């Protein structure tokens, strides 16, 4: 595809970072002190075969730096990838919030976004079944605002006190550190069965949402209720949503497992490549807003993080757009050192009494102190605000600021009592003054006690294919649990959601069929099903199978038509180099059958060519069969049609044959559907 300009390099954050960027190309090698060195591969020794000398300062500096290059990985969200971008609001949100970055549609706010898996270590695979993080740092003129979201709108627990417990339970078991990046083991499901508030999150985790096709095709949810506060001091409860312009799409489980072996960086590479090609990912920001007077107007507690606000009851208002348009320059300096915190807010955005949110407000800063070596992590370039900061905090590890003057306290007279607090009119943050009364207790409100109505709502909202995915996921995950008692507890627990679902799971697990009472909720929320998402061919990638002697003129027109529709492609053949058509037109080969796999594409287009031997034929046949099994679109032209005929695929949904403009239009429509679930797959 033709390349587009890469990002906007004129925003304040880019200009701020520019002073820290160093290009070492065509430069002389120096020590960290700037001394030019004449040798970088041989240590200083006493004689050619003698011992290394301690006076070799360059060796000592180089080795010491290497020994200290790694910092502790995040306990959760360790594996991630990130990009720069910008946010623009569509209309002023002045009636709801005084946050300045949500006022002027003509202002673009620089952002940095990090996507991540939750459970796995840094070296784990991208396509594991897991919750995904979607954290956004807004570099606003009032300070940094961090919107820390997940790709699922609820969480396992209701209180931050339990966060260490759920993480300990889902992480690899401590006696052997197995399994990696997976909840398919005893301790996780034992936690679930004995902490039934987790039921709703587990339903989402067993759904296709847990294996997204791409970070570009993944929602983000703020989970917690926050507050918007306007200039008049009026507050509204708010929940945040990121909605991808490409729709919400997922992998199938067999495909996800194979991708983990073929390309464990699949989601990382997908995001990176899309931005490099100029196909900038876009997400719209939506908000659900509830007036304070309606806080208790629902059949659930709006402060309960295991509950959603159904969109049919509280519509999502679209207020702005996020565009990711520039990849990072250095993974460690930016992606690895970025520090998010839901407590980083700006005037106009405030907290609620959600007990899980309250726990996070402590935990995030505490985590950064050990990961990033002390209290000055805000001075690392990727974390530094674009507006100046002034306070009486001093010293500490890695302090970058050189504070002048001798006053570092408040109140003072030596510096005219500066830096001085700002009034609310001057932009000072003033906490929302909520009236709070009650005894000091360790008890959860009864309004948090219903754990199964919303999981049933979620189940009712799923399509038949999504329901089968959930049953299969439970069967796989709990099937790895060795303790039969825990298996039975899980089956009995989810009978409270849907008895038929739990009975099918019990059969697959060899457990006793449950006899409990399922939730009586009959309501559904169509917005929860991925079947109702945006469907577009834009941003998709297909594999094109060619052999020498293909119909080059017609094929080039078809490939150009796919490109114009926003579909990327890679040429696959039997060997690297070029593949030559009937009219001696050459196309560069991107991959051989050995260096790629059908699971890495959204569809296959098979064309073939002349004099195809059995090796090529059989490998191409594998690609077609795998794509068919995973319900992907398959196109065929010219000699490629015989593969579809011999595999009895013609006539199935998503199978397109022919050439010319009509073929392109039909194939693009098939690609846009993503999966063709009505296909008969044996």
Short characterization:
With 682 residues, the protein is an alpha/beta fold. Helices cover 27% and strands 16% of the residues.
Explained architecture:
This protein is an alpha/beta fold and 682 residues long. It has three domains: 80-383, Catalase HpII,  Chain A, domain 1 (Beta Barrel); 462-531, Up-down Bundle (Hemocyanin, N-terminal domain), CATH 1.20.1370; 535-672, Rossmann fold, CATH 3.40.50. The protein is 27% helix and 16% strand. The protein has helices at 12-18, 57-67, 163-170, 186-194, 199-205, 253-262, 266-276, 331-336, 355-371, 453-461, 464-479, 484-494, 499-509, 552-564, 614-629, 641-646, 660-672; strands at residues 80-89, 108-117, 132-140, 143-150, 220-221, 226-229, 235-244, 282-291, 317-327, 349-350, 541-546, 568-573, 578-580, 586-588, 591-592, 603-608, 634-636, 655-657. Strands 1, 2, 3, 4, 5, 6, 7, 8, 9 and 10 form a ten-stranded antiparallel β-sheet that branches. Strands 15-12-11-16-17-18 form a six-stranded parallel β-sheet, sandwiched between helices. It has a two-stranded antiparallel sheet with strand order 13-14. Strand 13 and strand 14 (586-588) form a beta hairpin. Helix 3 packs antiparallel against helix 4 and helix 12 runs antiparallel to helix 13 (499-509). The mean pLDDT is 95.
């Amino acid at each position: 595809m033709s390349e587009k300009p890469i990002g906007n390099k004129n925003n304040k954050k880019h200009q701020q970072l520019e002073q820290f960027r160093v290009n070492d190309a065509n430069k002389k090698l120096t020590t960290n002190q700037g001394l030019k060195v004449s040798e970088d591969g041989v240590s200083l020794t006493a004689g050619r075969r003698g011992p290394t000398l301690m006076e070799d300062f360059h060796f000592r500096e180089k080795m010491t730096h290497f020994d200290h290059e790694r910092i502790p990985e995040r306990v959760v969200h360790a594996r991630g990838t990130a990009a720069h971008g910008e946010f623009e609001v569509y209309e002023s949100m002045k009636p709801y919030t005084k946050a300045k970055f949500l006022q002027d549609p003509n202002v673009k706010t620089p952002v940095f976004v990090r996507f991540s898996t939750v459970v796995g270590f840094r070296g784990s695979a991208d396509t594991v079944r897991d919750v995904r993080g979607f954290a956004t740092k807004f570099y606003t003129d009032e300070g940094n605002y961090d919107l820390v979201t997940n790709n699922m709108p609820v969480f396992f627990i209701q209180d931050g006190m339990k966060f260490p417990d759920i993480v300990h339970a889902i992480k690899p078991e401590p006696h052997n550190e197995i399994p990696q990046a997976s909840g398919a083991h005893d301790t996780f499901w034992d936690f679930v069965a004995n902490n039934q508030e987790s039921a709703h999150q587990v339903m989402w985790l067993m759904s296709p949402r847990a294996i997204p096709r791409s970070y570009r095709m993944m929602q983000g949810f703020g989970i917690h209720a926050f507050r918007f506060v306007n200039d008049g001091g009026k507050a509204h409860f708010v929940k945040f949503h990121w909605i991808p312009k490409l729709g919400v799409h997922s992998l199938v489980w067999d495909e996800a497992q194979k991708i983990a072996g073929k390309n464990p960086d699949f989601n990382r590479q997908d995001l990176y490549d899309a931005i490099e090609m100029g196909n900038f990912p876009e997400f719209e920001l939506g908000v659900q807003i509830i007036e304070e007077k309606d806080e208790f107007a629902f059949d659930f507690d709006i402060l309960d993080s295991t509950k959603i606000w159904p969109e049919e009851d509280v519509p999502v208002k679209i207020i702005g757009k996020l565009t990711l348009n520039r990849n990072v320059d250095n993974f460690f300096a930016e992606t690895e050192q970025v520090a998010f915190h839901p407590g980083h807010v700006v005037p106009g955005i405030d907290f609620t009494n959600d007990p899980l949110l309250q726990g996070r407000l402590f935990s995030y800063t505490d985590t950064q102190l050990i990961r990033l070596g002390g209290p000055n992590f805000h001075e690392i370039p990727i974390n530094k605000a674009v507006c100046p900061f002034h306070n009486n905090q001093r010293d500490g590890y890695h302090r970058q600021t050189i504070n002048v003057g001798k006053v570092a306290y408040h109140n003072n007279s030596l510096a005219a009592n500066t830096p001085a607090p700002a009034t609310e009119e001057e932009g000072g943050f003033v906490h929302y003054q909520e009236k709070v009364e009650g005894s000091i207790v360790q008890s959860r409100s009864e309004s948090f006690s219903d754990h199964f109505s919303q999981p049933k709502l979620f189940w009712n909202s799923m399509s038949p294919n999504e329901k089968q995915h959930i049953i299969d996921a439970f069967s796989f995950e709990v099937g790895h649990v060795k303790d039969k008692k825990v298996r039975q507890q899980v089956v009995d627990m989810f009978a409270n959601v849907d008895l038929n679902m739990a009975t099918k799971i019990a059969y697959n697990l060899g457990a006793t069929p449950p006899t409990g009472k399922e939730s009586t909720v009959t309501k559904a929320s169509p917005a929860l099903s991925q079947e109702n998402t945006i469907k577009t061919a834009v941003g998709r990638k297909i594999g094109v199978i060619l052999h020498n002697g293909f119909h080059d003129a017609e094929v080039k027109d078809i490939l150009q038509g796919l490109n114009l529709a926003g579909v990327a492609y890679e040429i696959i053949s039997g060997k690297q180099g070029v593949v030559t058509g009937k009219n001696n037109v050459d196309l560069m080969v991107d991959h051989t059958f050995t260096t790629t796999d059908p699971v890495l594409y959204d569809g296959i287009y098979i064309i073939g060519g002349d004099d195809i031997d059995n090796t090529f034929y059989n490998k191409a046949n594998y690609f077609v069969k795998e794509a068919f099994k995973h319900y992907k679109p398959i196109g065929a032209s010219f000699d490629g049609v015989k593969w579809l005929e011999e595999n009895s695929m013609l006539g199935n949904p998503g199978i397109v044959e022919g050439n010319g403009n009509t073929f392109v239009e039909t194939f693009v429509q098939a690609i846009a559907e993503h999966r063709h679930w009505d296909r008969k797959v044996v």
